[in-house]
Description:
Elements: E1 6-9, H1 17-24, H2 33-41, H3 47-54, H4 69-84, E2 87-91, H5 96-109, E3 119-122, H6 135-143, E4 146-151, H7 159-167, E5 171-175, E6 189-191, H8 207-221, H9 234-243, H10 251-267, H11 277-285, H12 293-311, H13 316-322, H14 326-358, E7 369-373, H15 381-392, E8 396-400, E9 434-437, E10 447-453, H16 460-465, E11 473-477, E12 480-486, H17 490-505, E13 513-516, E14 518-520, H18 527-533, E15 548-566, E16 569-581, E17 589-594, E18 606-615, E19 620-630, H19 637-640, E20 645-648, H20 654-658, E21 664-666, H21 673-689, E22 698-701, H22 711-728, E23 731-732, H23 734-741, H24 745-757, E24 760-765, E25 768-773, H25 780-806, H26 809-819
Parallel strand pairs: 1-13, 2-3, 2-4, 4-5, 5-6, 7-8, 14-15, 17-19, 20-22, 21-22
Antiparallel strand pairs: 8-10, 9-11, 10-12, 11-12, 15-16, 15-18, 16-17, 18-19, 23-25, 24-25
Helix pairs in contact: 1-2, 4-8, 5-8, 5-9, 5-13, 8-9, 9-10, 9-12, 11-14, 12-14, 13-14, 14-15, 22-25, 24-25
Amino acid sequence: MPEQQQWTITATEQPPEWFIQAVKQHTPASSGLYAAQLLWQRGIKDRQQLTAFINYKAYQPASPFEFGQEMHLAIARLQQAYNTKEKIAIWGDFDADGITATSVLWDGLGQFFAQNTQLVYYIPNRLKESHGLNNQGIDNLAKQGCKLIVTCDTGSTNVEEIIYAKHLGIDVIVTDHHTLPAERPLVAAIINPRYFPKEHQLFNLSGVAVAYKLVEALYQSLPNVAKYPLEDLLDLVAVGLIADLVQLSGDCRYLAQMGIQRLQEDFKQPAAARRRPGVGRLLELCQKSGDRPTDISFGLGPRINAVSRIQGDASFCVELLTSRDVKRCNELAEVTELANARRKSLQKDVQAQVAQKLTQLDLSTTSVIVLEDAQWPAGVLGLVAGQVAQETGRPTILLSTEGAGEQGSRGAEEQGSRGAEEQGSRGAGEQGSNSSPLPLRPSAPLLARGSARSVNSVDLYQLVKEQAHLLHRFGGHPFAAGLSLLVENIPLFTAAINQQLRQSLGSTTLTPTVQADLTVTVADLGKELFLELKLLEPCGMGNPVPKLLIQNCWFENSWHRNQQDWLGKKVQYIKAEFDIRDDSSRSAFPGLWWGHYKDELPIGRCDCIAELDYNTFKKRYEIRLIAVRSSANSALNAPLALTPFILDLRNQEHSALNTQHSALIIEDCPTNWDDLRMWLRRCLAISRSTSGLDNQQQLAIAWSKPKHQPPNQIWLTLVGIAKYLSRTNQLVTRGQLLEKIGISDQTLLVGIKALKYLGFTVQRQDRSLQITWNPNDSAENLADEAVARFLAAVREEQFQQQYFAEVPLSTIVAIASYDSK
Length: 821
């Protein structure tokens, strides 16, 4: 059983009356107050923002040529292929974003190049290959006569593979949204929105949206060639965007809104008249209608992802999404549905085994859960790890030794760091991720691989990175990672990573946390509230589905089923259904709880957190239960009593800061959670020393988005300063150095060590440093290694600052709640 969860309520600021009235114009059947509170709380605070947010027709999307020279290079190369009738290969990826991106290029480029003769596609096998290009696949495409590869949702960092393709006479156009390479690769073009500043309306595009922008540019450059309108691709774009859990702002939100509309319109057609009969059949199988983002995140997305998790090869999914052959699509949809049913069953089995192993752990002394088993399939470990992390409030790493000894240097250990993880760890994806391949150790007969998921404030990537010396490969970001290591290293790795997190947490206790946005009653539930909250859709990263707190309620008429019969196969399946009541209404309201039995519902009065939904199959409004507990254990206000009131003043003018006279103000962007915890504890200490909660100390986070120089430039600046100080015999303080080159004290120490290998001597004189230089070529190799370590430290620090520039306020509040205990 999971530990008692800590519940928090998002701090709400009452929006002004004019804003409430402006929202009410879009939802005349209700007061608009709940939607206004959420929109105001999430940064929508003027009429123009509100209109563009709600009505996509009022939004001005960016031109595909915003990508500048790279888009022009890509179109020129495609036009060359069009004129000379070259053969082109689309290189995709096996998750939902990659599959839909491949499908967009297959349909889109297929308007200009004959499918199957001039145009082919290749998707790596999830269980045998890793993400990205590989030489064997490139060899196969070369044998087929391909002269151009267009990647989607992958390829940015495949520098060596791109060079290999070039040697075989194959050009590469990269369309991707993941980690940028250190230098521009040898490509015909690279189209990646991460080259834009973070505030750009195209910055958050997922792989499928980038692929769409390429096709859009080609449509504009070669008008009157395409038979079908560009807008026919938007339904696929919406599926990939929402399934990948990218931040739905800017063009992402616009494309998702447009795409959901196309999806719904197509579903309303008879099966024989649908443009995408495969998508329509999938929606029927999961009892959805395509008009809700949740139809994708809980319906289409998990099913598309399940194919590669279970079968490895997901190539047929492109045919499923693009073919107009109704019979064939129905067959493929049933294969996909079966894969998803098997994924559910497999996930449930692994989760039960993990739960059993958890009973053998003392969670009071366990900071990071690390479990391994020889029978666990790697394809579902990320999903289960996400569930365990949410239930226990602890980072969770699950490892499989299945097939150990047969795994090569490339493998599925990176699976954990990409893609939407369905109903597991939300927000897992590789946006802004770091990946560190480590040299393969000789004679590695038993190699475990797995996935890791984090919760709240724990930076999982940093935790894993600190144990890099024990790992074979790892990659990921603060919330999710994939890794592999020798089986013999698992005990040492487990002990080391637990010790590391305990030291960083200090007296802080890890507790599973659930956050609610609004407090409502059962009487509030229904069509009126649903349509009001629907104004926020499509929801996603940065704009989550509203979580509703219902207090002092109870359940009745509960039941569950634990099996379903699919194609003659018994598949483990759990879903509890119930009616919920409270004192606000004489009528009950229906709901369901995925993955739970009715016996897990508390008896008597309780509190719950839920999402309001519409069930298109049963034609009813219902709640989807997220968390529940007995009223006697709720004490919602208790953990919040000493939580500091945190003001989010990031990226605002200094005049805004000056108005917060009594607030503690943090202006320097932190590089780790310990920096922030220091301020939180200081704030809490002041609050505890005052009399009454009305005197609660405010904390203002007021740093701006960092403007980073390239790491190489920072190194050259440091060397230049050292040479100047040596030549002039001047002293310098560490503070002066830090201010001049814009790095942390810890990274500066790494840089000073690198300077020493170049012949510099750094000595202390009182509170200053004296730097002298005596060039020495004998340590050239060591110097290269030291400089590489410095550059890596700078890149890591910049990555962390980018993370803290946009970390949700709710995450910071969660840390404050932990530290207030």
